[in-house]
Amino acid sequence: MRLWPATGSEAEVLVRLRPSRTSETVSTVTGVAGLRWVRDGKYLALGRAGASEQVLLAAQPRDVRQAGRLCAEAGLLPLWDQAGTAFENTPHRVIDISLAESAPAWSRALRRPLLAREVASHRASREPTLAELAGDASALMPRPHGPVSRRPQIVHVRSTRGGTGCSTLSVQIAYGLTRAGRTVALVTDDAMLRRVAKDASDETVVWHKPFAPAGGGRLLAASHGYYGEHLDVRAAEATSRGEIVVLDVGGRPPAELADLPAADLTVLTDNYRARDWVQVDVIDRRPEQIRVFAALDEHFARWWRPSTEQADADRLRTALDREFFYYAMLRLEAPDEVDVYDVDDAEDVEEWWDLGADGSPGHPDDVLPPEDGAPLDLWRRHFLDFITAEGRRRHPDNWDEVRDSWIAHNRLRNLQRLSADGDPIEDLAVRASEFPAAAATEHGSQPRAVTVEEQETWRTAKLMRWLEAQFNAHLRHDAAHLPRSAAETVMAVLDARFLTYGPHHAEGFAALADEVRGDDWWDAAAAARSLDGAAFPLLPGPDEDADVREQAAFLAAVEDEGARRHGEVWSEVRAHWVEHHRRLEQDEREPFAPAEDELPALRRQFAAALAPVTAAGVD
Questions:
Q1: With b meaning 16 or more CB within 10 Å and e meaning fewer, what string describes 276-291?
Q2: Over 60: is that where the pLDDT of 130 sits?
Q3: With a threshold of 0.70, does the pTM exceed it?
C-alpha cells in the first residue's frame, strides 16, 4: 500500500501507525505492533519483521522525529524502536494470535463501513466481535435483484486531474456492461456524448440512445454540461433509467458530490507512473540498429530544448503569432469583427498584453488557414496597426524590429503549416546536424557508438518525419482548399452538411429549406470547420437501403438551392452524390479528405510549395 498524506500531516499519520503503549499496567498497543521503518527514496517503508506486506508512506525521517514528540505529548510510550523488549514483544504476540483467531470477525467488519463510525474507537486496541456486527444493514454485500429491489447500482468514475481518460473509461465501462446484457444509464460530458450519440447535436433531447452491441442490453446517455453544472440533475434522472448508473464525475472535489447518489463502486483514473507502482525490467529485442536510432531520438529530445532559448524579440514574435491565430479565427466566423481587443476596457487590455506570461505553449493544431484561403495579409496589417502604439509603449527596445519582421515571419511559418510554437525545418536541420557531434560522448543507453552513416540516416529520417507531420497537418487543416473539381467540392460540402445536420433525423429534412439559402451553408471552408468534433464514419442505420433513401431525401431537400447556385455542375452532383457518399463511408474517409491514390501528387505539391521558404541546405 502507498499512502500520500496531506502536506504537513505526515507526523500525525505516523503517530497512528507506529506502535505505542497506552498504560504501564495494561499491555494495550495502539498502531501496528512490531512496525519498523527504513528510508526508501521519498518514502518511508513501513513493515514488520517476517512479513512481506509493507506500507510506503510519503514522509521523511524528520516526520518520524516529529511523530515521537506528538506521541510523548499524548502521554504514550513509544515502542517504535524497542525491538526485543518486553514492552514491544508481549503485545506483539498477543495481537498476532488474536488476529488469527478473529479473522472472520475482521472480514465481516471490513464490509460494514457505516458501523465503523460507531465502533472504530475500539478497533485500535481490540478485535470486533460478531455480536456487535450482527445488526448492521449497511454491509457491502451483493445486492438482490428482481421485482422487490429496484435500486440501481451506482458507479462513480473519478480522476485526480484532467486528461487521465476519465470520460473515455466511463464510456468503456458503460459499453461493457451493455454488452453483458445490462440496462445502463451513462452521464458524461458534452464532448464524449457527441462521440457516442448520433443525435447529440439535437439540444431538445436530453437522454440519447447511443449505438448498443447487437444482442446486448440497453444504453442511455446524457450530458452533465460543459462544466458539470447539471451533474446532480442528470444523476438523479439516471437512477430511474438504468439498473446500473455510470457517472463521469471527473476531478470534482468531494464537496460537489454531496448531492449525487452514493457510489457502490468508485473507479479512480490517474496517469500511470511506473515508479509509483512497480519496478519494471524491459527487455528490448529490437534489432541493434533500431535501438541505436531510438537512443539518438531520446538523447536529441533531451538536448534540443535547452539549446534553443529565445531572445526577447523572438519571444514577442511567438506571442504575436499565438494571438493572431485567435484573431484570425474570429475573423473567419465574423469578417466584420475588426478590433483585436477593447481599448476602453483596461482589464481587457491588460489581459491581452499579458501575451501568455505563464509560458505555456499553444496547441499544435492551432494552425492558420492557408494563405490563399483567407485575406491573411490584410488581417495581419490591421492586427499590427491596431496594437503598434501600445506595443511600442510596452516593448520600446524590441517593437520596431518585431513590427518590421513579423508579417513575413508569420507568413513563412504558415506556409510550413506550423503553429505558433512549432519548430521550423531550418532550425531542425541545423540542430540535427549539430547534435551528433555534441552527443558523441553519450553512450550510456546506446548499444554501441554511432557510425557516420547512421548519423546521416538518422538526420535525414528526422527531417522526413517533420515533413510527414506537416503534410498531415496540411491535409487536416486545409481539406477544403485541396485541389478538386467544382463538382467534387460541392459533393464534399454535401458530405459534411449531411454528417453535421444529423443523419437518421426523425423529422426528415424539411427544416433545411431555410438553412440552405445562406451563403455560409455552401462555403467549403465553413463546411469543413463544422466537422470539428464530429464522429465519422456514421453509425449505420436500420439497413443499407434505408441509408440510401435517407441520402436521397437529403439531396432532394437541397435540390432547388443547389441547382440555383451550382447549375453548371449540379446535374453531375445529383447523379453521383449518393454513390460517392456510400464509398466515402465504406472507406471510412472523412468529407474533404483525399483518396489514397491522390496522396502522391498532393505530397509533391506540398513539397514544391515549401521549397521557396526553406533555408539553403535543406534538401
A1: eeeeeeeeeeeeeeeb
A2: yes
A3: no
